[in-house]
């Protein structure tokens, strides 16, 4: 890249390569690439690899990526959620429980997702655990029908 195009690669270029290797299922190559990089991946690079490890059920590289990601960003719930879902897919409930305890001990919480619906020309926002809306029961009844 430097010789042919006179472009010095920056972290974004390396992250793109991690993404390309990971999405195409070449997780070992992605790991080798990371180990040979002249810089350390940021949270985006590690999360990219971890997400693909979840999709491809690669626990070994997934654990390595998760540990690196948690070192960089221990407050990010997405790291815990991805790793927990990997263990759950393997039915390793002891590891799932351990990760959930670690989240609780560190005060890390996953914010629930929310839904936006238009009902009678008004937009309403709610989440699955939201009981504050007086119309929620009505919404759910109408939605189920």
TrEMBL record:
Record's superkingdom? Eukaryota
One GO molecular-function entry: RNA binding
- Which key words are in the record? Repeat
Name listed for the protein in its UniProt record: Putative ovule protein
The record's Gene Ontology biological-process terms are: RNA modification
Stored InterPro entries = E_motif (IPR046848), PPR_At4g14850-like_plant (IPR046960), PPR_rpt (IPR002885), TPR-like_helical_dom_sf (IPR011990)
Species for this entry: Solanum chacoense (Chaco potato)
């Amino acid at each position: 890249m430097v010789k042919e195009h006179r472009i010095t690669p920056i972290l974004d270029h390396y992250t793109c390569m991690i993404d390309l290797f990971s999405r195409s299922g070449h997780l070992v190559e992605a790991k080798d690439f990371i180990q040979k990089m002249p810089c350390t991946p940021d949270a985006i690079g590690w999360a990219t690899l971890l997400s693909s490890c979840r999709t491809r059920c690669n626990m070994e590289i997934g654990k390595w990526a998760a540990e690196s990601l948690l070192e960089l960003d221990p407050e990010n719930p997405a790291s815990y959620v991805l790793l927990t879902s990997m263990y759950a897919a393997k039915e390793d409930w002891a590891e799932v429980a351990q990760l959930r305890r670690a989240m609780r001990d560190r005060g890390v919480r996953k914010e629930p997702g929310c839904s936006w619906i238009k009902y009678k020309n008004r937009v309403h926002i709610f989440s699955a655990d939201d009981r504050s809306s007086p119309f929620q029961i009505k919404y759910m009844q109408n939605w189920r029908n």
